[in-house]
């Protein structure tokens, strides 16, 4: 893929992401004003939907890396993985993470008043998950430049981290052990 078409694709993806976020903000504001006190269940539903989307991407992206690491650089297969990884990151994972954080922080503030050990632990683990998100985003760039040096085994191990974090986070939210 040439640099010109790559830049054009990047610009289009950014434009779509900004439009999508703007639409979400407008719809959320409308919902907030229409629902009033009944906004919380909507916020929780949107948060859960965003978390599911974020986790789906965070589980799938390292799996793509497993196969991409074994593909020959410059091959059709490698170039296909680059497109899949970029689109997954920009079209699903990044927006889902943003929505997760926005609605999660709103609920932590408005509903839970940032109180509770379980909430503090959850936020800390979501920060770890966000750090992993950043690591995966950097890996997408390295793969795009054919500079990945990590073997498929590394990505198989990384693929387990979001699952472990998700399990602990869900237990914290549902059980609230402390």
TrEMBL record:
<comment type="function">
    <text>Catalyzes the oxidation of protoporphyrinogen IX to protoporphyrin IX.</text>
</comment>
<feature type="transmembrane region" description="Helical">
    <location>
        <begin position="17"/>
        <end position="35"/>
    </location>
</feature>
<dbReference type="Pfam" id="PF03653">
    <property type="entry name" value="UPF0093"/>
</dbReference>
<keyword id="KW-1133">Transmembrane helix</keyword>
<comment type="similarity">
    <text>Belongs to the HemJ family.</text>
</comment>
<keyword id="KW-0479">Metal-binding</keyword>
<feature type="binding site" description="axial binding residue">
    <location>
        <position position="47"/>
    </location>
    <ligand>
        <name>heme</name>
    </ligand>
</feature>
<keyword id="KW-0472">Membrane</keyword>
<dbReference type="GO" id="GO:0005886">
    <property type="term" value="C:plasma membrane"/>
</dbReference>
<feature type="transmembrane region" description="Helical">
    <location>
        <begin position="118"/>
        <end position="136"/>
    </location>
</feature>
<dbReference type="InterPro" id="IPR005265">
    <property type="entry name" value="HemJ-like"/>
</dbReference>
<keyword id="KW-1003">Cell membrane</keyword>
<feature type="transmembrane region" description="Helical">
    <location>
        <begin position="157"/>
        <end position="175"/>
    </location>
</feature>
<feature type="transmembrane region" description="Helical">
    <location>
        <begin position="92"/>
        <end position="112"/>
    </location>
</feature>
<keyword id="KW-0812">Transmembrane</keyword>
<comment type="pathway">
    <text>Porphyrin-containing compound metabolism; protoporphyrin-IX biosynthesis; protoporphyrin-IX from protoporphyrinogen-IX: step 1/1.</text>
</comment>
<comment type="subunit">
    <text>Homodimer.</text>
</comment>
<keyword id="KW-0408">Iron</keyword>
<dbReference type="GO" id="GO:0046872">
    <property type="term" value="F:metal ion binding"/>
</dbReference>
<dbReference type="GO" id="GO:0070818">
    <property type="term" value="F:protoporphyrinogen oxidase activity"/>
</dbReference>
<feature type="transmembrane region" description="Helical">
    <location>
        <begin position="41"/>
        <end position="61"/>
    </location>
</feature>
<feature type="binding site" description="axial binding residue">
    <location>
        <position position="122"/>
    </location>
    <ligand>
        <name>heme</name>
    </ligand>
</feature>
<keyword id="KW-0349">Heme</keyword>
<dbReference type="GO" id="GO:0006782">
    <property type="term" value="P:protoporphyrinogen IX biosynthetic process"/>
</dbReference>
<protein>
    <recommendedName>
        <fullName>Protoporphyrinogen IX oxidase</fullName>
        <ecNumber>1.3.99.-</ecNumber>
    </recommendedName>
</protein>
<keyword id="KW-0560">Oxidoreductase</keyword>
